[in-house]
Write a structure and sequence with these properties.
This protein has helices at about 20-30, 45-50, 60-70, 85-90, 95-100, 105-110, 125-135; strands spanning about 5-15, 35-40, 75-80, 120. By secondary structure, the protein is an alpha+beta fold. It has a domain at about 5-45 and about 75-140: Alpha-Beta Plaits, CATH 3.30.70.141. It has a four-stranded antiparallel β-sheet, with helices on both faces. Helix 2 crosses helix 3. The site of uridine-5'-diphosphate (UDP) has 8 residues, from loops.
């Protein structure tokens, strides 16, 4: 008997893909994710800078934070077994042009524009998921559904 670890991850539909939100949510659900939190927010440049703080020394940081504060973003908490890796795989490579070549069915291939305007974000580790979920949903980590729990009702044979 295998106990599957249900994870939570943070997904963002970035401003460039906000008009495609419905299509992206359809793909998310079709791939078995449960959407446990959702929120539409327009980030200030300061909040966007805080979210992407780890990239503050990179040349693209200013353009990235300008882009991320240019319009509404949809923030979601997605849950399923292996959600972090699974969502990143569904998004595809960071650069949408590369995604169109290497993963044509991915979300970034379908809805992204280039290496910066790439439609979606996904946490890249359990630690970043915890930080990023708390960034948008400060109450979430106190709920019983937080990352890394062995959830008995998800027992599979
Ligand atoms: N980004 C960019 N230029 C680059 C690399 C990244 O504008 O050369 C942006 C892009 O929007 C990306 C985000 O910065 O999604 C975070 O970069 P990261 O390398 O963490 O990629 P991700 O985890 O989003 O695939």
């Amino acid at each position: 008997m295998v106990v599957e670890k249900i994870e939570s991850t943070l997904a963002l539909v970035k401003p460039d893909a906000f008009d495609n939100t419905e299509n992206i949510i359809t793909i998310i659900k079709r791939n078995g994710f449960v959407i446990s939190e959702r929120q539409v927010v327009t980030l200030s440049k300061e909040r966007a800078a805080q979210f992407y703080e780890e990239h503050k020394e990179r040349s693209f940081y200013d353009d990235l934070t300008t882009f991320m504060s240019s319009g509404p973003t949809l923030a979601l908490v997605l849950r399923k077994a292996d959600a972090i890796t699974s969502w990143r795989q569904l998004m595809g490579p960071t650069n949408s042009d590369k995604a169109r070549k290497e993963a044509p069915d991915s979300i970034r291939a379908k809805f992204g524009t280039d290496g910066s305007k790439n439609a979606t974000h996904g946490s890249d580790s359990p630690q970043s998921a915890a930080r990023e979920i708390a960034f948008f949903f400060p109450e979430y980590q106190h709920s019983s559904e937080f990352n890394g729990q062995d959830v008995r009702e998800y027992l599979t044979k």
